[in-house]
Amino acid sequence: MKPTMKPLILINFKTYLKRTDGLELTKKLMQVKSSKYTLAIAPSSLIVAEVCRKISIAVFAQHLDPVGFGPHTGSLSAAEAKMLGVTGTILNHSEKKLSSKTLQKTIGLCRKLRLQTCVCASTIREVKNIAPLKPTYLAYEPVALIGGNISVTEARPEIIQEAVRTAKKISPATKVLCGAGVHSSEDLHHALSLGTEGVLLAHAIVLSKDPVKALKELIT
Ligand code: G3P
């Protein structure tokens, strides 16, 4: 995915869907085009390879390990992900937290492999600890709001602004996203008005009865 100033909409599938449904959803979402936003998906780890082979949409891994090829049983190799055509990876999601040592190592390897990194932070303290690692994206996601229908933009606007100020002061090139409960175009526009450069979202799209309609409405 070429670097672009367009705000990022990153749809995290988590492990909500079984393989066939995940592939089906990816095929549907790639029909949605936008001149205003960069659309990307983070499918389940078990279908990333298949999605990269079959679908032309920007794909993020939901997690990668700081390993290449070798004796790394059970790891998700960043080197292999790069070869598969993955654009980048989410890291340190509140559902997959990493030690700061592992996070630093993984961001370093991803940078070397030219894989974009979207590192999640649940608090301003985490934003302060993560920003010096200079990720591509830093996504502020308060745990309490994840999976709910109250958008972080409604519940925590001032914290989003503080996350943007804090991250940009430490790492001006890092783009700040926000996530948790984001489900409407108002939430998206509000997120952008608060200084973010996009959103990370999951259930409002992935669990929608009509994901294509939900995404089209989000980006209007
Ligand atoms: O990775 C994004 C996710 O944690 C937000 O979840 O369902 O509140 O959009 P959701």
Low-confidence stretches: none
Overall SS class: alpha/beta
What does the average pLDDT come to?
A: 96
Largest sheet descriptor? 8 strands, parallel, barrel
> What letter string, H or E per element, gives the SSE order?
EHEHEHEHEHEHHEHEHH
CATH architecture, by name, is Alpha-Beta Barrel
| Global morphology | globular
Give the strand tally: 8
| Rg on CA atoms, Å | 16 Å
Which distinct ligands sit in these coordinates? SN-glycerol-3-phosphate
Q: What percentage of amino acids are in beta strands?
A: 15-25%
* Total DSSP helices: 10
| Order of strands across the main sheet | 1-2-3-4-5-6-7-8
Please give a structural write-up.
The chain has 220 residues and is of the alpha/beta class. The chain has a single domain, classed as TIM Barrel, CATH 3.20.20. 38% of the residues lie in helices and 17% in strands. It is built from 10 helices and 8 strands. Strands 1-2-3-4-5-6-7-8 form an 8-stranded parallel beta barrel, surrounded by 5 helices. Helix 2 links the parallel strand 2 and strand 3. Helix 5 packs parallel to helix 7. The radius of gyration is 16 Å and the shape is globular. The two termini are 22 Å apart. The model has no long low-confidence stretch (mean pLDDT 96). SN-glycerol-3-phosphate binds next to strand 8 and helix 9.
